[in-house]
Amino acid sequence: MPRYLNFRSRLAALLAVLLIGMVAVLYELNRRAERQILAQVETQTAQLTTALELGLQSISTSDYLDDFIQVRRLPPQQLQRIRRIAIVDANGQVLDSTARAERGRHIAPPTDAALVTEGDPLASEAGGNNLARTIFIPFQVLSKDGTTERNYVVVTLSAQTLADTIAATSRQRLLTTGIALLVALVVAVTLVWRFTQPIGDLVTAARRIEEGDLTVQLTVRRRDEIGQLALRFNAMAARLREMRELERAAVVGRLASGIAHEIRNPLNFINLTIDHIRTRYAPAAADERATFERLTASVKDEIARLNTLVTNVLRVGRPAALALRPVNLGVLVNVVLDVVRSKADAQGVTLICDDQTQGRTIEADADALKSCFSNLVINAIEAMPDGGTLHIAITDTPTGQIVRVRDTGVGITPDDLAHIFDPYFSTKDTGIGLGLAVTRQIVADHGGTIDVESTPGQGATFILTFPYCHRPPAQSG
Known about the structure:
Beta-Lactamase; rod-shaped; 5-stranded mixed beta sheet; 10 helices; 5-stranded antiparallel beta sheet; 477 residues; 3 domains; single chain; 12 strands; alpha+beta; Heat Shock Protein 90
């Protein structure tokens, strides 16, 4: 199972969190609104009860309502939401009111089904109706003729505060919902941007590959499907680069092989001709013979060098038929160093071979390994034109031997280090770049490995490993 959430799971989790958060916020707002509205209703109920008590109590006194209330010395907040307390007879005439100007006015008497009415009847007659509720509390009084009649205690209370509270809580819910939706929109846009940006990078990279640039690589910062897609794209680009290099190497190899075959025959004829000339036409005089021998030897050396070059061209990419026998790497390396010692002395290069194998041998082709170490040693000496030290260390391992060829030369740049073993890649003005490619081929033919470490300006170290015994696969055909 993957240790990461895929994109769909993350999106579902994010939407779930947003939904749960929005529901929690709205639930808390609703609870707060309920508490606020309940508190307002309780306050209005308490004030209404107080007003009714005052109205009923004032009937048995000779004081007007406003004077009666002043005598009681009630705190103002107890009647804060009460607009008026009035006594109204059965005919709708206002007998008493906390508002003196309303005494003697008439209002429509209520019916038994409408003892609670919306609005303020007296204020509506004046054209100034606001949010209010009027409650008629009937009571019986004895008239002058001995009959009873129904009068009313009329209490008008303001509903403005309750309406303001309801409106405020509605605005809070609307504002909170809008903020939550805005946050969800921002999160969704951010998520879409994060999702589409890698896709845009992928499209750009695919376009560059279509144009022939196979060096493009995507930076992988995610572990979801988009990250996996980027990894697969990088692997595809690497595979395309490898295939292009293989095709290029195959084309160049076929061309080089054809040319090499055409060169080898003339070289052999020239070499035989030189041998014939040395035998049949050598001068009799000693000084002239010496010059003749030196010149013909130089020609043969050049022919041998060209023949080696042709052999290397033909050898690249092809497994060799090895003549395996016990080989002492310390002795073989010293033989190679003796060949180049005069050149090394001329450049001021010190040659050191540190053999720690105590004479233990490996199964190898001595001639092939001699060519391998010759390439490495010559390259190392050429990398130290102003002198230095070439140190070759040979050590044992449980499965084979390790050879470290370290020089103190100019080193190899990181860009060149990645291609140092590629066929036909060379950092020198002369040569065709086959020496290290052939060296790697020889090491691989022996079942070994070769690596290189280098710091520009501080030299390079080639590390070769060889098994004690290697049996190459049988050659077909």
